[in-house]
Prior knowledge:
The protein is of the alpha+beta class. The protein has eight helices and 16 strands.
Amino acid sequence: MKHIIGVIPAPALPQVKSLLVDEDGAGQRLDNFLMRHLKGVPKTHVYRIIRSGEVRVNKGRAQADTRIEAGDVVRLPPVRISERVAEKSQAMADSVARGAPAREFTVLFEDDCLLAIDKPAGVAVHGGSGVSFGVIEQLRMARPQAKFLELVHRLDRETSGILLIAKKRSALTHLQNQFRERETGKTYLALVAGKWPANKKVLDKPLHKFLLPDGERRVKVTTRDDPDGMPSVTLVKVRPSSASQFSLLEVTIKTGRTHQIRVHLASEGHPIAGDDKYGDFELNKLLQRTGGLPALKRMFLHAWRLHLTHPVSGEPLALLTPLPPELAAFADRATPSES
């Protein structure tokens, strides 16, 4: 009688990983960033691998309090996490992948290494934080033949407009370096309550991220001596209008902080119409009803224009997408042009 001996595969050894910092991670301390990505690893071990120099930022040693920026590459040494945490993370990823419906979005530009789409409002860029799936998961389902699709940057769920997806890892690294080095030009259209002062062109108050008691993320302006304050620069240009109740602004960001435009504009007493986090909540309720103006049922913030350098050809690339119909209709009535 033959005996068949089963071979039990050895558990996969942990590998060195490289993480690209996105705009959501920009401004964080290195230790906090690692805690978020190394769930299941004891804090003492996280601090040990930082002190030993095993963690690298852009190939250089870093301290626990080092501030990371969008586009930074963080090298993680091989670390073990508990099997329970690993299984839970994998199960969540598998669930997202299975549940995402295939969906294509309006394409603004596409070639072998880069895809630019017009993201609609109400769609998250990726799954997580209570959202089952987002743009990137839906695109991957719609394009099963694509070997590589990764977000270059982020947009808030309620923000519409230009979103970049890399189709090659080399393009991802090149483009995120452009964002990190502030070599791109990102301009949004925002409608705010009230008459914006024409001489108020530069907003540079530092921003501070914090959590509400329920764990939801928020941002506020802070003082320049706040050690947790992140330098933030927003440029504002007012579009000519005879309106006094609203102003349509072209807003260019020189730094990519979380909720930067929303918080900077609100801090000047002119919140974005329809903003459910930093806006005028009573005004928002009125705008949702049909009356003298078309109903506004979303935040009036649109990623309108983006200038960048093509990651392969090196040629300048200018992307533009007009206001979606619901915002254009509201803006036409709310801010009639000066004759």
